[in-house]
From TrEMBL:
Protein name stated in the entry: Xylose transport system permease protein XylH
Disordered as annotated region, ranges: 1-30
Membrane-spanning residues: 42-64, 76-95, 102-122, 142-161, 196-215, 235-253, 260-278, 308-327, 348-377
GO cellular component: plasma membrane
Amino acid sequence: MTKTVPPQEGQTPPNADFTPTPAGQSGSGSMRELLRSNLRTSGIYVAFVAIVALFAFLTDGTLLSAGNITNLVLQYSYILVLAIGMVIVIIAGHIDLSVGSVVALTGAVSAVLVIQQGWPWWGGALAAIAVGLAVGAWHGFWVAYVGIPAFIVTLAGMLLFRGLTLQVLDNVSLSPFPAEYREVASGFLNGLLGGYGYDAFTLLIGGVAVAGYAISGWRSRAARVRYGQPVESLALFIAKVIAVGVVVMAFAWQLANARGLPIVLIILGVLAIAYGLITKNTVFGRQVYAIGGNLSAATLSGVKVRAVNFWIFVNMGFLSAVAGIIYSSRSNGAQPAAGEMFELDAIAAAFIGGAAVTGGVGTVVGAMVGGLIMAVMSNGMSLLGVDQSIQSVVKGLVLLLAVAFDVYNKRRAGASR
């Protein structure tokens, strides 16, 4: 006698006929689901463009000037690096409150070795990364293998590593770094393709980035078509690629007419591409989403939850060290108070960029856009002479609204089932 097992929710019965929905011919319900699933991501891009347009108008175009755009990249790059790691932590359902202290500690270690001990600049950078990996392993052990909530572990880490920073620096600032170290955050690639009155190499890199985006988007769209999933119309896809291309090339043009391509932007671009691929196209990335989406189901599916959680925090320690190197290079020294409130900026970037407070949702690109929104608001308000206290109020309200939007979407989705 054969026992019939009812299909689980969201699964197709084994002997049921299944006909994939033709691309571009989805029913109204499928298209509604497509629009609803993309609302968070699309909304953040629209919000970013609107905020840039608003501050560009209020500052009479100063926000989008070549010099100011270059300064935006240099001043907020370390927050974007932290946001990449933080969004992965949040997707898995955790939080990390210690990254600001780790930025300070890794910068302090690098400064002591390079400035006081005479190490080469790259030796100090490698030592900082080693410290960041050790810190990440420390957090990962307590969270993954002991079972203490990440909030408590990293709160303790915030205090512990801030104290260690004071010990390493003996409560005094150290400066200056050698010129090679300062190039990490303040250097530029300029004139590599000859003199044209602008930096042609920067424009070339911008064109390559646009081409990469178009190819990646086309492959993703083709994959969805093969599996019968709803996709946007071809005209809409082309319009989106053109819009992104115009924005990227305008950005590249401004950089090309300033000081060229910042080295830190190359570092940031490599990290964004690498982690975008890791989260989307690797087993580890899918396991991170599975743990944050449904821990019990992930465990029953054979995901090694402890190992994944451990490496999530090791990765966060690594990226905190990278941010520490960039920040100390940018400030040309190490200070005991370095990195204060950086964790809040990184968390805000992840949530504004579409990460869910309950885990399982978020993207690297979204987190970076969220960080750019915070950067543009801070820079725009500074150009307008807005008091620092008012800036904090505005950023706090934006964060609150972003989380409220996430909660609203979840309630709406639950009510429609």
